[in-house]
Design brief:
Blueprint: H1 2-6, H2 13-28, H3 32-50, H4 57-72, H5 76-92, H6 98-114, H7 118-130, H8 138-154, H9 158-173, H10 179-198, H11 202-221, H12 228-246
Helix pairs in contact: 2-3, 3-4, 4-5, 4-6, 5-6, 6-7, 6-8, 7-8, 8-9, 8-10, 9-10, 10-11, 10-12, 11-12
């Protein structure tokens, strides 16, 4: 429609935004090749409109989407590059755009966690937490705290791990009911279970892994709402719970 209005060969912000919207749809359905095609079209058109060497917030948003897309396809080097480009674009803009800044920091930290760079990821997450006021965006703060808990667990900082996972649990519990909330709570309970197991508290580990499994099983009933993330979470949670039950006699709570 926009092409009909502005002309087939015309570069326009509305057309570039439409390309990003189409890419989002393909990303949600797991059609990453098609999503990459439309995001590339959007980026090229936005650069053509504003100039290759010009900074613009739309370019930053598109790089962020590209980074998430590459992360979803396990292309972490490309993902990190796109997130860094998004940060460069945002830094050069005249306005703060703190929500985008925080979102890119969190997304970049997730890619670094997937690459086992927990120390670097933790530093970025602490920066993101600093720019997320306590009375604003509880879902964002919950996500940041959950990821910080993961980093601290891998860094063997168990006291801090519990602090952040408990904070994430409280934030998620305060949010309205949704599938996203249930999935997030399942992830937190699973990581609390890992933490308890590391500390030798097997009964508590079983309790939290059981809570995680219950939440994931509820989500899995509605096949229409089963995302790739939930598909990956279910076997991890089930394996953890069954493994804990099978080894219960080998551990004693301290």
């Amino acid at each position: 429609m926009y092409k009909a209005v502005y002309g087939e060969g015309t570069n326009h912000n509305a057309i570039a935004a439409s390309y990003r919207g189409i890419a989002d749809v393909y990303t949600d359905t797991g059609e990453y090749t098609k999503s990459l095609h439309y995001l590339t079209l959007s980026l090229d058109m936005t650069k053509a409109i504003h100039g290759d060497n010009t900074t613009h917030i739309d370019i930053a948003y598109t790089y962020h989407k590209l980074g998430r897309l590459y992360h979803n396809t396990d292309q972490y080097t490309h993902s990190v590059h796109c997130y860094n480009m998004a940060l460069v674009q945002r830094d050069r803009c005249n306005t703060a755009h703190l929500p985008l800044y925080t979102a890119v920091l969190v997304s970049l930290s997730q890619t670094l966690i997937s690459s086992s760079d927990y120390k670097h990821a933790k530093g970025l997450l602490l920066l993101a937490l600093k720019h997320s006021p306590t009375d604003y965006c509880k879902d964002t703060r919950a996500n940041i705290c959950q990821l910080l808990g993961q980093c601290c667990l891998h860094l063997h900082q168990y006291r801090k791990c519990w602090k952040y996972l408990y904070s994430a649990l409280c934030y998620y519990e305060s949010l309205p009911s949704s599938n996203w909330k249930m999935k997030s709570l399942a992830q937190v309970h699973l990581y609390i279970s890992y933490l308890c197991l590391h500390l030798g508290h097997v009964s508590q580990a079983i309790e939290h892994s059981g809570l995680a499994l219950d939440l994931v099983e509820v989500l899995s009933v509605d096949k229409g709402n089963v995302t790739p993330e939930i598909t990956r979470l279910y076997p991890d949670t089930k394996h953890m719970t069954l493994g804990l039950y099978s080894t219960l006699t080998l551990y004693v709570d301290v």
